[in-house]
């Protein structure tokens, strides 16, 4: 049914209105879980403020237009509807809808049934209405209908305003019930916001009163990842010029082979962490602190956002996520040979297929030999559609290295392994690129990578506790998940 009869049309009009109203505020941490018709993938979104809004919308539009003009006539009505919906999403500047629409296309290459999109919107709306019914303050939904402009007025509110009041009434570890489109209810972890505002008071979330420094309250999210005019601009720019020129499919394979022998040295994770005090990441526009400080900040942010002991794996993962950067350290006694930074840090990307424009400093790939190599410069390159990221060779760096260390020598869960392996894959988890290579498992785990990304990025501030302050919490956990000293 494409809205041919009157009733359906009215219903759609209503739905249109609801969808538009619902998204007239830019909600930050809504998790949408949905099944789309014809689409076997369950898709997840951890939506948050100001996520590369323009880029995503621009990409999505191109995609929609392409589909609209290249698929069969019988689909026309459906597509028109979808396009209208999409127009709305642009109109109401809502990246959330943009992402949904885009995903419906990208996740299975066909156009999902428009009714299911509406259904998804409805569910989210219900979720929020229920939340409101439970007496949460700061919720901003009703009464905004007439205020929709290109920038919904509520959009300016931060997550803290929207959620902190409610969070004060409830423990941060509370489970939220999320309805899936298929009707079943499943338990999802409810995080506090990334400022750790869930319980608001100092020293009550198990972080021994150290939480106030973890995230710089004065730095806005939009001020991070500034690759155009940041303070470290020159260093970062030079870094990516070199990396994007030199990192090829063959280099990645060679480095994989070299470092995955684990024949450097044997040492506990805790001891190895100390080596991070020798690394300052040239690719990072947001911090000039050493990586040991970044590790502590990220770990503590993770504890704050997911404080429950059931998330201890998440805390450990956060602490060690960049431990692979020891590849950039020189210590002959430990066989650490100091790789150049372009082979260790920075955002990661698949090699062996076309470089995506969702990469930062995309233009710098122009001089990469793979860019001219027919084997590697097509959309799929050496890969097949939805082959799964496990099949994909990523640019070599600390993520891939640490993933293999943890996969072979720890008991960390799958989500943790995904975080370790793909946390620097910003073009994917942040800009929605490379979806054509993903399978369902990748999409399931994406939500954890995204949850982690907030702790990783927004915890970068100038204030940091010392290792001694956190040893009592992390050391036993490291021993729990890495039962033996590690072969590096
Ligand atoms: O995960 C991060 C991220 O990708 C940053 O952009 C990069 O500069 C860092 O090296 C990496 O550890
Ligand atoms: Fe990293």
Automatic annotation (TrEMBL):
Residues that, per the record, bind substrate: 225, 281-283, 325, 346-347, 423-424
Gene3D superfamilies: Hypothetical protein af1432
Name of protein: Inositol oxygenase
Annotated GO biological process: inositol catabolic process
Enzyme nomenclature, EC number: 1.13.99.1
Sequence ranges of Basic and acidic residues compositional bias: 184-196
Family stated for the protein in its record: Belongs to the myo-inositol oxygenase family.
Keyword field: Cytoplasm, Iron, Metal-binding, Oxidoreductase, Signal
Pathway where it operates: Polyol metabolism; myo-inositol degradation into D-glucuronate; D-glucuronate from myo-inositol: step 1/1
InterPro entries: Inositol_oxygenase
Cofactor: Fe cation
Region (Disordered): 176-221
Annotated localization: Cytoplasm
Principal localisation: cytoplasm
GO cellular component: cytoplasm
Superkingdom of the source species: Eukaryota
Bias-annotated ranges (Low complexity): 198-210
GO molecular function: inositol oxygenase activity; iron ion binding
Lipid metabolism found in the keyword field: no
Pfam family, one: MIOX
Binding site for Fe cation: 294, 321-322, 398, 423, 456
Catalytic activities: myo-inositol + O2 = D-glucuronate + H2O + H(+)
Cofactor details (free text): Binds 2 iron ions per subunit.
